[in-house]
Design brief:
The complex is a heterodimer of chains A (about 120) and B (about 110). Chain A has about 120 residues and is an all-beta fold. Chain A has no helices and 11 strands. Helices cover about 0% and strands about 50% of the residues of chain A. Chain A is globular, with a radius of gyration of 13 Å. Chain B is an all-beta fold and about 110 residues long. Chain B is built from no helices and 11 strands. The termini of chain B are far apart. Classes of the chains: A mainly beta (about 120), B mainly beta (about 110). The interface between A and B is medium-sized, with 28 and 25 residues.
Chain lengths: ~120, ~110
Amino acid sequence: EPEVTQTPSHQVTQMGQEVILRCVPISNHLYFYWYRQILGQKVEFLVSFYNNEISEKSEIFDDQFSVERPDGSNFTLKIRSTKLEDSAMYFCASTRTSGGYNEQFFGPGTRLTVL
Amino acid sequence: KQEVTQIPAALSVPEGENLVLNCSFTDSAIYNLQWFRQDPGKGLTSLLLIQSSQREQTSGRLNASLDKSSGRSTLYIAASQPGDSATYLCAVVNNAGNMLTFGGGTRLMVKP
């Protein structure tokens, strides 16, 4: 069964460093998402992406964050200058069409630790 | 702004018991509601999706209901097993967008 994959599973970085989190959505899906979950807190929406552009973003997704679909399979989240409070589990998700009418399928997550 | 709440936050039951997890949301203008399972330190596994026009969905021992007008959903788990131990999350997609808004989850422990 097709699934969303994410790499790396765990990333440790120093404060102020740039990180890129990678995702491979399900191949025939068109909508892509990033969410994050700080330890002990709710899963929070960051950004959605469709047709090579951002369709929605939350207040969390400020200028330090960017997303890209560099080729036909990968979807990346870049954090330019990491802060301690960026430490969280980051989940990528995808759905075949508009999220309102289809299930969102999630990857296993990347645990980001900022020291 | 949509707020999703799940009660109880934690639940411990003996194996074999039937149980109900509750989810409520403040804005009834939703496209759908999705229930997920999350094992410790792991990703989210989709369990059931209920469209706003539907009243319930079933998958195996799981049954989810939706009362959109009152802003409530329940997840019923029949004949619980130790392997059902996990955190169960509900999330909604609002009419205004396509992102999920999550509740805080119910942490379920099924004791053998």
